[in-house]
Amino acid sequence: MKQRFGDRVFQAANGLFLGLLALVTFFPIYYVFIVSFTDPSEFLLKKFVLFPQKWSLEAYEYLLSTKAFPRSLGNSAFLAVIGTLCSLAVSSSFAYALSQRRMLLRRPLMLLVLLTILFSPGIIPHYLLVRELGLINSLWSLILPSLANGWTVLLMKGFFDSLPAELGESAAMDGSGAVRTWLTIILPLSLPALAAFGLFFAVGYWNQFFSALLYLNDAAQWPIQVLLQNMLKSASTIDLTIPGQHVEAPPSEMLKMASVIIAITPILLVYPFLQKHFAKGAMVGSVKG
C-alpha cells in the first residue's frame, strides 16, 4: 500500500524523536566511559573530553591496586553468585511443591505467599529480625531475608504448572521420589525459567544498596554499590590508597567514572548469554498460574 504524505511525515518525526531520545540516554554512559579511559594530564587540561587524544588505564589500575575497591567487588560477587544460587534453589523447590496438587497444606501456603505480596512488615521489623538472628555486619544479612519473594514463587509455580503432569506420574511409576524427580526431570526442563529468574536475582544482589546501609556497619563488608555511593558523594571519606606505596592518585572524577564502569560491566557481560532464555522463561511463567 502506498503511504500517505502525513504517514511519512509522522514516521520521520517519530524516528527523529526516538533517535534524539536514544542519544540523550546514551550520552551520559558514553561520557563516563570516555573520561574513565582518558589520560589524567589531558583531563586536567581540558576538563570536558568527548574523545581523548591519549587513552590511559591509569584510573582502573589505581582502583584495582587499592584495598577497598577489590574487596567490595569480591563482596558483590559473593552476593551475586551465592545469593542467586540459594534463591533459585529455595524459590524453585517451593514453587514446585506448590504446583503439586496432592501436597498437604497447599492452599494455606498459597494464601501465605499471597499475603507476603499484599502486605510488607516494614523496615524496622526486618532490621529487628536480622539483628536477633545475629546477622548484623554479615553478608548473609543480604541473602537470607531475600531468598524468595511471593511474586517470583508464583511465576515459577505458573511455569511448573505448564509442564505436563504425566512427567511426574511416569517418574513415580518408575520408583522415582519427589526430590529425585525435581532434580533429574523438572529442573533440566526448567532451564529457560531458571535463567530468567537467575538474571533477576543476580541483578538484585549485585545492586544491593539500601539493605547494605542498614545491616553493614563495617566498611570491609560493603558491596560495590555502597562503596560507589560513598565515592560519588565524597572520595575523601574512602580509603583508596595503595597499601605500601606512595602513588599519586588520578583525579577523583576519573576514579568515580572508572568505578561506575566497573560496577555495571559484570551485568552487561552476563545479560547477553541469558537473553535467549529470558523472554521464554518469563512469558511461560506469567501465562498460566
Automatic annotation (TrEMBL):
It comes from the Bacteria. It is found in: Cell membrane. PROSITE patterns: ABC_TM1. It comes from Paenibacillus algorifonticola. Keywords: Cell membrane, Membrane, Transmembrane, Transmembrane helix, Transport. GO terms for biological process: transmembrane transport. Its main location: membrane. This is Putative aldouronate transport system permease protein. PANTHER family: ABC TRANSPORTER PERMEASE PROTEIN MG189-RELATED-RELATED, POLYGALACTURONAN_RHAMNOGALACTURONAN TRANSPORT SYSTEM PERMEASE PROTEIN YTCP. GO terms for cellular component: plasma membrane. The keyword Magnesium does not apply. It is a multi-pass membrane protein. The lineage of its organism: Bacteria, Bacillati, Bacillota, Bacilli, Bacillales. The chain crosses the membrane at residues 12-34, 77-97, 109-128, 140-160, 181-206, 254-274. Residues 73-273 form the ABC transmembrane type-1 domain.
